[in-house]
Write a structure and sequence with these properties.
- The structure holds two protein chains of two kinds.
- Chain A is mostly helical.
- A three-stranded parallel sheet of chain A has the order 1-2-3, covered by helices on one side.
- Chain A is built from five helices and three strands.
- Chain A is extended.
- Chain B is of the alpha/beta class.
- Chain B has one domain.
- In chain B, strands 1, 3, 5, 6 and 7 form a five-stranded mixed sheet that branches.
- Chain B is globular, with a radius of gyration of 17 Å.
- Classes of the chains: A mainly alpha, B alpha/beta.
- Chains A and B meet through helix 1, strand 1, helix 2, helix 3 and helix 5 of A and helix 1, strand 1, helix 2, helix 3 and helix 4 of B.
- Strand 1 of chain A pairs parallel with strand 7 of chain B.
Chain lengths: ~130, ~160
């Protein structure tokens, strides 16, 4: 869904006159939504901009990806980036679709930490008081 | 071999008794605008859909959340948080650059490969089933923000 949402936004931004480039790790989804320019990084989902804590590889990937703004001349092209997942070369063999089922999802904020929740809720309260004074 | 996510998801949904999800198919050629400046002079925008927020901001929820967060280009990397229902968050929480390449882009600005970053970058939680909500609500709002940020180009990073 993420790739689809991003592709739809890219098409609108480009239609408004802004050149766009989508990075992608799900090639079939990005090809289906067909954004103006896309580069495909054949990595496990969750690493579209590079492997964690490997800044030298992240920089190489982004430099190569952004170069596509200049290289690509054909609308709807998906170019494969020349990088392979550096950790386990057999990662696709153990691929298992996450249980992305369509059960009811809650509409309350899903914080990474309890501390985040407290900070955000405190800020909301302060904002409400400010609004009340205004 | 590339993983076929649409086929995998269709199989998963059908095993759970759900109807197949209707993925967007755009066979028509997309709009296409050439870059007007060399990369070393562009002001680049960034939109990432991996559910990134800054501590202190309200986190995303998981029910077709079409909201977005605005993140300053000089944000401290250690203040970034990640929440999403559809991918393994372990690595993104360890190093947000895997889904929101902020340090990477700041490095590329530093070495002169790109000109500068927009003052504000945008994030949302891309697991939105309603494509209509994205097309009619989220995409127009983000596009307007990109125009206001006067970007020459925008990089989009899904998960």
């Amino acid at each position: 869904m993420c790739h689809q949402s991003v592709g739809l936004i890219a098409r609108q931004a480009e239609a408004a006159g802004i050149p766009t480039l989508c990075m992608a790790s799900a090639r079939d989804i990005i090809m289906s939504v067909n954004p103006p320019r896309a580069v495909f990084l054949d990595y496990p989902l969750g690493h579209t901009a590079g492997p964690p804590d490997r800044p030298e590889i992240q920089i190489q990937i982004l430099r190569h990806a952004i170069g596509a703004f200049v290289r690509m001349n054909t609308p709807g092209t998906v170019e494969t980036l020349p990088f392979s997942w550096p950790d386990n070369p057999d990662w696709k063999k153990s691929f298992d679709m996450l249980k992305d089922d369509r059960t009811e999802r809650v509409d309350t904020p899903q914080y990474q930490t309890e501390e985040d929740r407290l900070r955000a809720e405190t800020r909301e309260k302060i904002n409400m008081i400010d609004d009340g004074d205004a | 071999m590339t993983i076929d996510y649409i086929k995998n998801l269709t199989t998963l949904y059908s095993s759970l008794g759900y109807r197949p999800y209707q993925w967007i198919e755009n066979p028509d050629p997309p709009p296409f605008i050439a870059l007007k400046k060399p990369l070393s002079q562009i002001r680049l925008g960034l939109i990432a859909s991996g559910g990134i927020y800054v501590t202190g901001q309200t986190a995303f929820h998981y029910k077709d959340d079409a909201s977005f967060r605005t993140i300053a280009k000089d944000v401290k990397t250690e203040d970034l948080r990640v929440t999403h229902f559809a991918y393994d968050l372990t690595d993104a929480r360890k190093d947000p650059n895997s889904v929101f390449p902020i340090d990477t882009l700041r490095h590329l600005v530093g070495e002169g490969f790109i000109g500068e970053l927009a003052d504000h970058l945008f994030t949302f939680m891309g697991g939105i089933y309603s494509a209509r909500k994205v097309q009619d609500d989220l995409a127009p709002r983000l596009t307007q923000h990109l125009i206001d940020e006067k970007v020459d180009a925008v990089l989009l990073v899904p998960v």
